[in-house]
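Predict the 3D structure for this chain.
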Amino acid sequence: MATVKRLCVYCGASDLVDPVYRAAAVELGTRLADAGIELVYGGGRIGLMGRLADAVLQAGGRVTGIIPAHLDNREIGHHGVNDLIVVGSMHERKQLMFERADAFAVLPGGIGTIEETFEIITWKQLLLHDKPIVIVDVAGYWQKLVALVDHVIESGFASPRSRGLFQVVDTVDGLLEALATAREPIVEPEARLI
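Done. Predicted structure below.
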């Protein structure tokens, strides 16, 4: 079993969304704190990101936020987290989030969340890591994204094994169960690309 001490969560910075998505962010934050799992996230104080971080903090958990200076300068950074790391670029942000995480979860979000999700899946496909990736399909939000991946596979641009690079669950409970039952990550240098 994989030991997940730090979970990187990708999610949206908008609060003008269905309340079910906001509730999922709060539930996940509370549950992470209760489980003793540190949150690693994009460092924002707004939208689902802010709600998630606040819920972890309110439940007594630990939060590390990683934010580029250009966003922090626009007063988007959450200066109430345990550790807010300000970096020079989006690339540095994503690299540091990757390095600090034992696993990745994806809540509803926008184009930036989609980009982060595909990047971390691609890194796994390229054998740069073997950490668990779990998409939390709250109220069916990610169904079209999963359908797109299936379309790519059906069209011959990816191997059917690519679908095994990530899991999809419907709830926060499903996410926590997936993390609890994930196998220990291994990356074999001689492994072939998927």
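The chain is about 40% helix and 15% strand.
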